[in-house]
Amino acid sequence: MQETRQNKIARLLQKELSIIFQSQTRMMHGVMISVTRCRVSPDLSICTAYLSVFPSERAEEILNNITANEKTVRYELGTRVRHQLRIIPELRFFVDDSLDYIDRIDELLKKG
Questions:
Q1: Among the residues of the chain, which ranges form H helices?
Q2: Are 94 and 50 a contacting pair, CB within 8 Å?
Q3: Which H or E run includes 52?
Q4: Whole-model pTM?
Q5: Which domains does the chain have, with CATH numbers?
Q6: Which InterPro entries match (predicted)?
Q7: 12 CB neighbour count, 10 Å cutoff
Q8: From CA 81, how far away is CA 72, in angstroms rounded?
Q9: Which residues, at least 6 apart from 36, have a Cβ–Cβ distance to it below 8 Å?
């Protein structure tokens, strides 16, 4: 039962974070951020979001910028989901490099 609620909240947070990053990156030409996965802790107090950044060369720079503005992102998230959630979870961001990993494997398979 608890796991179902965690999954619903994770999907809600993923959707809302995607919208927030989409609106913020409109000003940054040539950069696209997508939220690939969200995980919520069992007590619903921590949300771990995995971000995919294009172009991937700027991933560390973008992640540092997002982490520095974490309170602003959490506040904006809170204004969007305040009617669905009582407590807005603490946010943690990580780069999801699975697409780069897949591209690397494809390159190795083509060479071999």
A1: 2-25, 59-68, 70-81, 98-111
A2: yes
A3: strand 46-54
A4: 0.83
A5: 2-111 (3.30.300.20)
A6: KH_dom-like_a/b, RbfA, RbfA_dom_sf
A7: 17
A8: 14
A9: 50, 51, 52, 96, 98
